[in-house]
Amino acid sequence: MATKIRLQRNGRKGYAFYSIVIADVRAPRDGKFTEKIGTYNPNTNPATVDLNFERALHWVMVGAQPTDTVRNILSREGVYMKKHLLGGVAKGAFDEAQAEAKFNAWKENKQSGLAALKAKLEEDKKAAAKVRLEAEKKVNEEIAKKVAEKKAAEAAAKAEAEAAATAEEAPAAEASQEAPAEA
User: Fold this and answer.
1) Residue of 79, 5, 72, 78 whose CA lies nearest to 36
2) Pairwise CA distance, residues 67 & 3, whole Å
3) Which of 37, 61, 132, 138 is deepest in the core (most CB within 10 A)?
């Protein structure tokens, strides 16, 4: 039986979530499978992979062929690095302890790079939020200036109207006071 390591699609429309499965080549994509060895969520940044490392390594060692995407996932998780090191042990290039030390060093390097990437993404997110906040403050200040100018113009117009009204009332009041004196 020819086996493949491939993705099985789950999730709703527009939000795919995949299971990493071992399946017969003839089985449909979301059909019958032999074993589920992990999950892959491309919707997060960076993509989340939950993999049973030992079973993935076992299936790669016995000859299961991964699809292109799964090959990239397994490579990123270190399955192919471990297979390469175990091949070196089998050929006698180095012993198992050295292979394990090399793998752990590679894994630590990979983890530190991933942590640096997450930190950079977080820093970029904070910087973008700060820029948006500054832009919003600037817009709010401009709006406040326009509102203050409009209120000042309204207050000036109101004061002018009151002054005109009092100016009209003053001569009318003087005229009403002069009229009884003449009579």
Assistant:
1) 5
2) 11
3) 37
> Which CATH fold would you assign to the domain 3-91?
S16 Ribosomal Protein; Chain: A; (3.30.1320)
Q: For the full predicted model, state whether its pTM sits above 0.90.
A: no
Count Cβ atoms below 10 Å from residue 114 Cβ, excluding itself.
Answer: 12
Q: Domain residues of the chain, as ranges?
A: 3-91, 94-169
Tokens, residue 33: 């499978």
pLDDT tens digits along 107-123: 999 889 888 988 998 99
pLDDT digits (tens, 9 = 90+) for 56-109: 999 999 999 999 999 999 999 999 999 999 999 888 888 889 999 999 999 999
